[in-house]
Design goal:
Blueprint (H helix, E strand, L loop, with lengths): L1 H19 L27 E6 L7 E10 L2 E11 L10 H11 L3 H15 L12 H18 L2
Antiparallel strand pairs: 1-2, 2-3
Helix pairs in contact: 3-4
């Protein structure tokens, strides 16, 4: 009787594990597609230049993005972070660039360029991958681009 109970409990445990660990259509660590986030599949944008800016961080860097739309498509993106104190762009600050490259191993300019090009390629901020080592900047760019594109939607 104990063996039968143990066997039944083992089967129930296995079934529970299989059901709980079932597959999902979103792979861990992967960004959901726009359709999975409730966004429209085919979005049309009004031509123009749209901007959005975020709040400055504790070091005074304020993220800003400018998105250019032509013929309903994203054709240019400029992302940077501006020092509120003196207006310096993070990508142009040689000291910051050198320190971040040495300490974090991340080329800030390359990170920004990669993020900008990814948005042009995907046409969707939610499909832009996080740039390793520049997670905060990646999230800022994606969120601000989404806000700028809201202004451009027809």
């Amino acid at each position: 009787m104990k063996k039968a109970s143990l066997f039944i409990m083992s089967i129930l445990l296995i079934l529970t594990l299989v059901a709980g660990c079932g597959t999902s259509n979103i792979i861990q660590g992967q960004t959901p597609k726009s359709s999975e986030q409730g966004s429209q599949q085919a979005v049309t944008y009004k031509d123009g230049v749209y901007t959005a800016e975020g709040e400055a961080d504790d070091r005074g860097w304020k993220p800003v993005v400018e998105v250019t739309i032509e013929n309903g498509k994203i054709v240019d993106v400029n992302y940077d972070e501006i020092q509120e104190e003196d207006g310096t762009q993070k990508s142009a600050d040689q000291e910051y660039y050198k320190n971040f490259l040495e300490k974090a191993g991340v080329d800030v300019r390359k990170a920004y360029e990669t993020l900008e090009n990814a948005l042009i390629r995907t046409q969707n901020p939610y499909e832009v991958d996080i740039y390793t080592g520049a997670t905060s900047s990646s999230n800022n760019m994606k969120n601000l681009a989404a806000r700028a594109l809201e202004k451009a939607q027809q």
